[in-house]
Amino acid sequence: MSGQGAGDGKVWERFVALGDSFTEGLSDPHPDEEDLYVGWADRVAATLAMHNSVRGRPFAYANLAIRGRLIDDVVVEQLGPALEMAPDLVSICAGGNDLLQSRTSVAHVVERVEDMIVRIRATGADVLLVTAPDVSWVSMVSRVHPRLVEYTAHAWALAQRTGCLVVDIFTLPSLRDPRMYHPDRIHLSSEGHARVAAQALWTLGLTPTGPDDWREPLGALPALSRREALLADRAWAVDHLRPWLRRHRGGHEAGEGRTAKRPELLAWDHEYDDERYEDSGR
Fold first, then answer.
1. What is the domain-level CATH number for residue 178?
2. Distance CA 147, CA 88 (A)
3. Which residues form a coiled coil (predicted)?
């Protein structure tokens, strides 16, 4: 089965990733560098670099995403520098921090995302737009599920209007598993990032090979008793929800003072490539 981008003969040489902590890579720790994360976008870049290397084509990558950024921050801080790099592929996964808070409307997030897509598409570059995940099964976090559903519906409409490609993680069944997430129930684990990267590669027309299917769920976990579930929710509230609320009430964001981990469009190798994913004939 081929992805949305299969068969169009394209080879991307300049990839720029925009967004927040999801694209920065939290919580997928770098194996060698402290306080640096890998993430789905780095994994996609590594595979694209490998494919271009086989063809004798150059490849460069920048990741401008910074944790805690709201949609307006991404537009103001990241879009301009990205356009100056003249990319031929841009990923957008932004607005998640807004959707977690009721003070920003879904309509505003969609409007800002569409503005970014239109400006990028006007340069001739392709856009990878990532949907929201399905969190209906996640205890406590599920209260924001309706807003994520609404945004995801709009994402597909944006694709119809602008011709961008949609990385649909909302319907990815393997993500409906706590092992795909950090204990904070928001950020992806390394395995979760790997699954999202595979979905993005498929969207670009790459065919997964090997025994593992990124769409298939892991083996079932033992069911928690009611008491165990309540204790887990209580621990999550103390360890993650309470600090998050305290920070936001104080007007502080997670990424204050941080800069992008890969702010320049530089040649990129394939240190994170996964040999399970091969070229589908592009």
1. 3.40.50.1110
2. 31
3. none
